[in-house]
Specification:
The complex is a heterodimer of chains A (422) and B (280). Chain A has 422 residues and is an alpha/beta fold. Chain A is 46% helix and 14% strand. In chain A, helix 9 crosses helix 10 (224-239). Chain B is mostly helical. Chain B is 73% helix and 0% strand. In chain B, helix 1 (2-37) packs antiparallel against helix 13. The longest helix of chain B is centred in the N-terminal third of the chain and has 36 residues, at 2-37. Chain B is globular. Chain B starts with a helix and ends in a 7-residue tail after the last helix. The chains are: A alpha/beta (422), B mainly alpha (280). Chains A and B meet through helix 1, strand 2, helix 3, helix 12 and helix 13 of A and helix 4, helix 6 and helix 12 of B.
Chain lengths: 422, 280
Amino acid sequence: MKRVLAVALLVTLLVAACGGPSGTSVEAPGTLRLQVSGEREEAAVFETVARAYEAAHPGLKVVVDVVPDEEEHLAKLSTGFAAGSPADAFVVNYRTYAQFVQRGAIEPAGPLVAGAGLDLTGHAQQPLDAFTQRGELQCVPINASSMVAYINLDLLKRAGVPLPTEEGWDWESFRAAAIVLTNGEVKGVGIGARLIRVAPFVWSTGGEVVDDPVAPTRTTFDTPEGRRALSYLVGLVRDDSVVPSQAEVKAASLEQRFAEGRLAMLLSSRRDVPRFREVEGLQFAVVAPPRAPGGRQVTALHTDGVCVSKGTGRERQAADLAAFFADREGQQLAALSGRVVPVAPSARAAFLQPGAQPLSSEVFLDQLPTARALPAVPGWGEVEDVAKDVLEKAFYADGYTVEEAARDLDARSRAPLAEARR
Amino acid sequence: MRRSLVWAGAARPARTATAVAVVVAFALPAALVVVGATRPPGTSVLSGTNWLRAPARLDALRIASAQIDLPTLLRNSLLVTLLAVPVTVLLASWAGTALALTGPQARRTLVAVAVLALVTPTSVLWVPRVVIARRLGLADRLPVLAAPALMATSATFVILLALATARLPRSLVDAARIEGMGPLRTWWRVVVPLTRGPLVTVAVLAFVARWADLVEPQLLLASPERRTLPLGLAVLRTDEVSQAPIALAAAVVATIPPVVVFALGARWLLGATHDRRGRP
């Protein structure tokens, strides 16, 4: 009797499993699964382009599988590959795709998208380089953001600080502006304690952040250039007090403070534009990040690419989808959202959108030739985690010197990179 | 005697004060969530008293519903839990009864298996679950999220019901056997009526476990129309700029079903830990 009941129960479950809400299963033929990560605005961009792709390819369906948290996104990808059922294509940042190349999970996209008719002539070179490994384009870059300084124009005007000239700010004029802009609850500048925010300051002095950009074994902050950059940033936080404290950042993020008019300048990428546009009354501009006195203008590259999973049997269809995202229509749709800096020159006009904030949006396009990429190697994610830990301590912990931070960072970066090489 | 009465008199206000402090400590965050959910989107808790003085509105709930399709998420989560909870209770009770009534040798083995299941990290099961779901053609289908119910969801539930069954007088089970009842009838006529409190406890815990699960839906579902509530809340969680009221409004909605289930089961839950006179 018990056995009969158990079997009946199992059959009931299986029958129920075949039902469920209406909709196409990802297992259905003619359906492609694209796994992406990102906040709501970014997910909306992927949905928009996917629907346009469906419209251009009747009979095909694209399921955009959004995993908001990036770590969970990578965990789901790894689980999918281990289980032999990855998404047909997925979008990752250039700083995290190397692990999938290393384990042979990616079908190099270069030859596939060329076969799909995508002409990459004129596309931004930095993202293409960032996604090239083993002599082939591994994933197709679909955006090309970089670090800029967001500026609250009202706060700037109220403090009597002029916008920088075409030459841009150097460190000292940037610091002077941040000091004048700091007033009561309003802080001058927000800088995240992250390697990707600090790296441009090192590069600007002529230094490097790793010992070998292709096969790094450690970071190189314990150098005159690295220490100079760290000293400048730590000075802004501790000596000048123009950066929100750790407690203040924990209570409200830098982005939130900028949106609420409690932060005059913010170093960030394009990702914040859609949110800041939604804030009533917020007038903002973007300018290039400051350069070291006598140093060079340089910024950090932010780019994502569509990768094609190997072994799904649908690599060509997935590559066709990837090509659509990087081609004219996909790029224009993405650029119109305001969230994405396009890689295709044909989407330049759609991106600039006269009248739309931020003022001087062309900075994102103009400074791209000065954008440098961080290493794209397995284990780099762990290095950035270590860097976050050390940089937070350097910014906010009393008695922790710049020299100690530089030494700790270089020492602690060795293990994850060595582990990943094994 | 007099001395102890004085102590008791002094202790009562202290006990009451402690109880009030504990209630406030737990109730205050919940109250803030509800208040926050009714604030206008775009405002921040950090703006202080103005934030509290703003009139209560349902704008945040409307926006949340539009952003993450709350009705669909609620429906999906309810479908999964309504499928998973009865199966969990049934199978946990069967397994618990078997564990309690079997011989000492077999019981030791079964307890060892249950403990092994308890200490196995869930992440170890992710890949096998994805593989099985795919092989059975259940990938990206809602009922796959109820599949752990076929293993009673958690060994904890089996052990809990085994302990409850083991407390029953053995003579009752023996009498049922003498009356000619088989294992299934003995379970139905003897064990179920006398372990209602623990059964309801397991039902409530199983409901909460399925309702709040984020990892398995994340791994096993892909289509937006099949997402469950925790996945929807995760989307709102990534919004940073002054969108707290929207996330809080969705969180309040997500909290209502478990609270209702707990309220419905409260009588039985208390019955499981107190006797008829209300004594522990």
